[in-house]
Amino acid sequence: MDKISIKSFLSIIAGKITIFLSRHLFKGGSNFPGKVALKLDKKILKKVSENYKVILVTGTNGKTTTTSMIANSLKNNGLDIITNATGANLHTGIVACFVENYKFFSKLQRYAVIEVDEANLKFITEDIVPEIITITNLFRDQLDRYGEVYTTLEKILEGIKKVPETKLILNGDESLLGGLKLKNPMYYYGFNTSINDNKEIEINADAKFCKFCKTPYSYNFITYNHLGDYYCEGCGFKRDELKYYVDNIIDLTPESSSVTINGRALNINQAGVYNIYNALCSYAISKELALEEDKIIESLEKQSSSFGRQEILSIEDKKVKIILVKNPAGFNQAIDTLCLNKESFSTAFLLNDNYADGRDVSWIWDVDFEKLKDLPIQDVFISGIRMYDMAIRLKIAGLNKNSFIIKQEYKDLTDSIINSENNTVYVLATYTAMINYRKYLHSKGYIKELW
């Protein structure tokens, strides 16, 4: 056994026991075991992460899916890895993940692919020096907690500055991540081809002005929101050179995307431009870790959706796809995916305002629901704590109010979905609504694994 203090030993044992009890008695508890372990040893993370090469994934959207893609790529290359697959990305949840996987008699070198909340990165890099940190993007999200995107960036940089030797893999199409004055080695990924002819930034985009001279950005092309090949006509600031890039869009469907990355053709089993970014980020990190390219591509093409990230379920005879939506940028991407449908379908909108969702739901007025009014949508199911706010927003957007089916209880919502004439239903849910609805579906046997 490695040399370990009594305090650390007791912390690990207490954490492991709490994890066991939480899983078997309460069907959850991904953060509480970490609180227990930290109560006994504030520096336990440093001990339990000793034998790991760590990759940290942070940013506003795409953390969970990107983390899963990277983890699967490492597995497909035969490497031993751990990951916080359920998205427990706070300090306590990450501690719990390492404690659960800690082996007293092992000195085996392993990899850890860890999703990290933006505001919690500084706590993780206090005890861990990662091999790689990646930042996916920066959008307005939970304004009551993070503030504006510039505040979120500062929170992330506070953590990065503690580990100047760590390699950074950054989204080059994210203007907020360009021109960073950091000591770290930095490499960028992004799009070298346009999706459409759009060069006009949305009125509600999150970072429209040059971070140096405040001149409005110009674009050679925009992928979505404020992401794209940007440049400033005021001071000359422009996108950094891309090392990893999408160079061709072959096909976009409601189920998948076909693209080429650095000249290699790839079919991504999740729809939406945002999932192309997630796959590109995973590819970039896998290449930086010197993994075998054929196995990287193979892993990405086999990537399946889970835990509310375009997760596909069968509820009786209905094909139900659950899509997590938590801010205007992500919601608009989900809507763009729905717009690819040519056949009729039904939708369900679940809006909560718990702490993890953000108390302020006014952000739904920045979502382009107007795109939905001309789509072949049969039924519009609405639920969640703030279901009437959602109903009003959809009515103002021009959706047919006669198609609205408002149900507060998950049982009534599910019965209505089952009784719908349409066999395809998209469930767009905020974070706690997604979590709670999945728990209900698990209790009824529609989901086999809750976590």
TrEMBL record:
Keywords, ordered alphabetically: ATP-binding, Cell shape, Cell wall biogenesis/degradation, Ligase, Metal-binding, Nucleotide-binding, Peptidoglycan synthesis, Zinc
List the catalytic residues: 360
**EC number(s) recorded for this UniProt protein:** 6.3.5.13
Presence of keyword Ligase: yes
GO MF terms on file? Answer: acid-amino acid ligase activity; ATP binding; carbon-nitrogen ligase activity on lipid II; zinc ion binding
Q: What class of enzyme is it?
A: ligase
The keyword Magnesium appears for this protein = no
Please state the pathway this protein functions in, per its UniProt record: Cell wall biogenesis; peptidoglycan biosynthesis
Its function, per the record, reads: The lipid II isoglutaminyl synthase complex catalyzes the formation of alpha-D-isoglutamine in the cell wall lipid II stem peptide. The MurT subunit catalyzes the ATP-dependent amidation of D-glutamate residue of lipid II, converting it to an isoglutamine residue.
What's the protein called, per UniProt?
Lipid II isoglutaminyl synthase (glutamine-hydrolyzing) subunit MurT
